[in-house]
Amino acid sequence: MAFEDLLEDPVIQKYLHELVGPKGMPVAAAPPDGEVTDEELAEELDLELNDVRRALFILYENDLASYRRLRDEDSGWLTYLWTFEYDNIPENLEEEMYRLYDALEDRREYERNHEFYLCEICSIRFEFGEAMDFGFECPECGSPLESMDNDRLVNAMDDRLDALEDELNLEA
């Protein structure tokens, strides 16, 4: 898939935005063909050099950019030539989906296996043991803690897990 096609996908735009943030998004959204230095990108995009370097490093950490170093023989200075590798984005997104699935599965089990109490005034939730330690009174305001039904939350997690299973072609 070409850079242009990838960058038109709103899911990929959101993924890149989550990675590099608003200051790094111009770097991520405008990958040049071939190699480029961080200074060239900063000048071309009219950005602070540190913001460009931060975005490049984040892209590098996520296997979406690579670099090679050149040493100037006269000055000894190193120049980094960056290349964008957005072919890895679909694989990275799939890995993120598996991480989300595992975390959501763990959280669902936690929700299923614990009893919760809620202070309706402060909106603070307590596990049974904590609520018992506080005498079933909110430590913030002194209101009684009410038993909390988290079935809607567990059902929403079940629905999201089902959707992820479909997306990832997992057997439940």
TrEMBL record:
SUPFAM superfamilies: Winged helix' DNA-binding domain. One of its GO terms (molecular function) is DNA binding. This is Transcription factor E. PANTHER family: GENERAL TRANSCRIPTION FACTOR IIE SUBUNIT 1, TRANSCRIPTION INITIATION FACTOR IIE, ALPHA SUBUNIT. Transcription factor that plays a role in the activation of archaeal genes transcribed by RNA polymerase. Facilitates transcription initiation by enhancing TATA-box recognition by TATA-box-binding protein (Tbp), and transcription factor B (Tfb) and RNA polymerase recruitment. Not absolutely required for transcription in vitro, but particularly important in cases where Tbp or Tfb function is not optimal. It dynamically alters the nucleic acid-binding properties of RNA polymerases by stabilizing the initiation complex and destabilizing elongation complexes. Belongs to the TFE family. It comes from Natronolimnohabitans innermongolicus JCM 12255. InterPro entries: TF_E_archaea, TFE, TFIIE/TFIIEa_HTH, TFIIE_asu, TFIIEa/SarR/Rpc3_HTH_dom, WH-like_DNA-bd_sf, WH_DNA-bd_sf. Keywords: DNA-binding, Transcription, Transcription regulation. Monomer. Interaction with RNA polymerase subunits RpoF and RpoE is necessary for Tfe stimulatory transcription activity. Able to interact with Tbp and RNA polymerase in the absence of DNA promoter. Interacts both with the preinitiation and elongation complexes. The lineage of its organism: Archaea, Methanobacteriati, Methanobacteriota, Stenosarchaea group, Halobacteria.
